[in-house]
Each structure stands twice: as structure tokens, then as C-alpha cells.
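Re: the 342-residue chain
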Amino acid sequence: MIKKLLGIILLCVLLAVASFFVGRASTSSDSHIFELGPTPVPTPLAKYSIENMQLAPVSPAEFSKLGEISKTKTTNTYAISMKYDPTLRGESNKSVTGVVNVPQEAGKYPLVVMIRGFVDQSIYTPGVGTKNAALYFAQNGFLAVAPDFLGYAGSDSESGNIFETRFQTYTTLISLLNSIATPSFAEVTGNQWDGKNIFIWAHSNGGQVALTTLAITGVTYPTTLWAPVTKPFPYSVLYYTDESADEGKFIRRELSQFEKLYDVNLYTFTNYLTNIKAPVQFSQGTADDAIPLSWTNLIVTKLKKAGVDVTYHIYPGSDHNMRPMWDAVVAQDLKFFKSHLK
């Protein structure tokens, strides 16, 4: 009987001790020991925010001449390639092909970097969207270089993510601009760059690539824009989704995933207009069915308010490709570039 009583007492003591430690483990002061935090979600595209790209190191690209495309009495046109890191983080090296127009007469010439608008990959050939203006500039004493961008012509494949593909158009242009003074670029241009003057010409979606690059880099290269896309990202993408075969379903689905992880305000140049230090000339046709006149009117007003040196030309009756005023528009660009020669 006594043994049984002692056993009961011992059991009660053990239960009391156990409940004491369980209570201790569940108190608020020690509970963090047993809590698991949420698993971090990878954000690989954070490096492409405008502020992060401003800080990213840019390794020089390596240029190669691939062969002659055409020749006139005054100019030579060559296919080139540039090998560079589109991530700006030393994560990969890819090659982008492009076209360079060089005056035949030996000398030192200013350079125009040319950025085309959107072209369907299935119909793209090197120089589409830039070749006529590039030839005009070369005939008038300028070098002209136009990258094809990843996924086009003989370039390496673009990213599997549609937004990284978009952001890498900026890094392609940044790499090109930062490599103009390299020996390999001198080789593909016949060592004819004057070492001082760099200009930018862009059309349509190439205009937002140019403006974003100006906002990232702060370079002062005089820039001319034909009917540029200037609405904030992602509206600038959504506006055209009805042109897709699926009427934009894929793009909207990808965008919803993007917005769960990233602040889109950090990826649109319109939030960084005071970073733009280059003089910019806009040309806009009133019959443009791709870029509303109101878009260009608005961005010109905003840039002027931000202190940017802006020139604006409106061409009544001209379409998205500046027809029928193409000759007058490209001549106005040449005048603008010559007015900013060093």
C-alpha cells in the first residue's frame, strides 16, 4: 500500500515537472525558438531596377566584324557582333549582332547609335528600322551603329522571361555606349570615330529604350526620338497587348506575377526624369496610329519641367514612320546633331 502511494506521488511529481517545462517552452519569451519564418522568395530581376542598374559595373564588350553587307559610292555597311554581359553582373556572356555604316572616305567622324522600334522576329533582318536613316547619316559624314538585340538576326537567344528580355535591351545599349572607346570597336569602325562625339537616334519602342538608358546613365549624348513610346511601364506594354495572337493573355499573366514580387515604379524612366541630362529632340506626326500625339505632348511638358533641354517638332499628316515628311525629319536630325558637335 505504501509503495503504491509512493508511486502515485512520484508520478504526480513527474507530471508537474513536465507541465512546468512545457509551459516554459510555450511562453512568449521563448516561443521564437520554435517559429519558422517564411521562405525567402527569389527576386532575380531586382538587379534591373533603374537605381540598381545605375550602380552596376559595366564590363567592356568585345566587337568583331562579320563581313560586308553592302557598298555605295560613299559608304560601306558591315555586319558586326558584340560579346558582352547582358546582366551587368558577370553572370553570363552573350553575343548580339548589328550593323555599322562607315563613310568610305578616310577620316574621323562623329558617331550615331541607332535604336529601332519593335519588329516581329519572324520578319526581322539586320538593319530593319534603322538602315535608311543610318545610310543618310553615313552619307553626311557620320558613323552609324545599330544593334539587333538578343533574339534577333544572328544574336544569341533572349531571356526566357519577357520582362528580363525587355530590361536587357537597356543593358545592351549601356554596354555598347560604354565600349565605344575600346580597341575592338575602333577595329570594326575602321578607327574612324572622332573620339568626342556620340549621338543617339531612336524610333518608337527604341525611344523608351533610349530614354530609360539616359535616365540610368546620365550621359549627355544629344538624342533624337521619332514617335517614342513614353508612357510609364507597365502601361506602355499593356497598351499594345491587343496586337498579340492571344490578345495579351500571356503578357497580363506574366505581369501579375511580376507585380507580386517587384515595385513597377522602380522600372519606369518616367519616375527618373531629372536624371536625364542630354538634350533631346522629339519628332511626332499627327497621323501616327501607334503613338498618340498626346503622349509626346505630355512627356515634352514633363521633361521641360524637369529641366531637360527639349526640342519638339510636330509634322502634320505624318504617320508613325514620318511619311510623307521623312526627308524633312531626318534632315532636321542631322541639323540637330551638327549643332551639338564638339
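The radius of gyration is 28 Å.
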